[in-house]
Amino acid sequence: RYGAGMIYLKLRQTGQRVNHKRVDRLYAEAGLQVRRRRRKKVPVADRQPLGRPLSANQVWSMDFVFDRTAEGRVIKCLTVVDDATHESVAIVPERAIGGHALTRILDRLALERGLPQAIRTDNGKEFCGRAMLTWAHARGVRLFLIQPGKPNQNAYIESFNGRLRDECLNEHWFVSLAHARTVIEAWRREYNEERPKKSLGGLTPSAYARQLAGKSATLTPGL
């Protein structure tokens, strides 16, 4: 499900000298194409530019993705992406996540990598509720809310959610919440540490984050 372009990058990542046209040809001959359902196109006039921050933890994007376990019970996954590095900061599968639970998750993430300067979300009740607003004000985190019906304004998390759905959720039958957590976390680590991205110059999100951190340290006075 990676596609010929991703396979080409993975081969180059391992040091193999290979022509992308040959990869495309072999991919087509093997019949590996997977038909994808196309999203409705957004008119160009309605699109708004979404700039990438210059360093990690400037802006995170958040959203929810839903799935079910084998017995039909809902899994609600909180997805968090760093807009600068494209790292998957976290994917948290739970049966339910309300406003207070959301703030507790963010406090746990803050212990691991610090707080972002801002968080971009849609207008869901968990993101706009009193618990989230109080939490953000107390910690000095700005909240960026996209316009209703404008998911393109949160393009980084929308793209990530599509990958998560296509490559992980749709490909596994979760027998329990614990099973879902294990599989999803393994996919998240692969996404960050093993998956090269063309938009990051062929680097993985983790490698790109290290590169940005190195540049930041070089430019910081006194270091």
What would you say this structure looks like, in words?
The chain is α/β, with parallel strands linked by helices and 223 residues long. Helices cover 42% and strands 15% of the residues. It contains eight helices and five strands. It has a five-stranded mixed β-sheet with strand order 3-2-1-4-5, sandwiched between helices. Strand 2 and strand 3 form a beta hairpin.
What share of residues are in beta strands?
Answer: 15-25%
**Sheet having the most strands:** 5 strands, mixed
Helix content: 40-55%
Helix/strand structural class: alpha/beta
**What sequence of helices (H) and strands (E) makes up the elements?**
HHEEEHEHHEHHH
Rg (CA only): 19 Å
User: How widely separated are the two ends?
Assistant: 44 Å
Can you count the beta strands? 5
Instruction: Categorize the overall geometry.
Output: globular
Tally of helical runs: 8
Mean pLDDT: 88
Low-confidence stretches: 41-49
Quaternary organisation of the protein chains: single chain
Spatially, the strands of the biggest sheet line up as 3-2-1-4-5
Short overview:
The protein is an alpha/beta fold. It has helices at residues 4-13, 20-29, 99-113, 125-128, 130-139, 155-167, 177-193, 205-219; strands spanning 59-68, 74-82, 88-94, 118-121, 142-145. Helix 1 crosses helix 2 (20-29) and helix 3 (99-113) packs parallel to helix 5 (130-139).
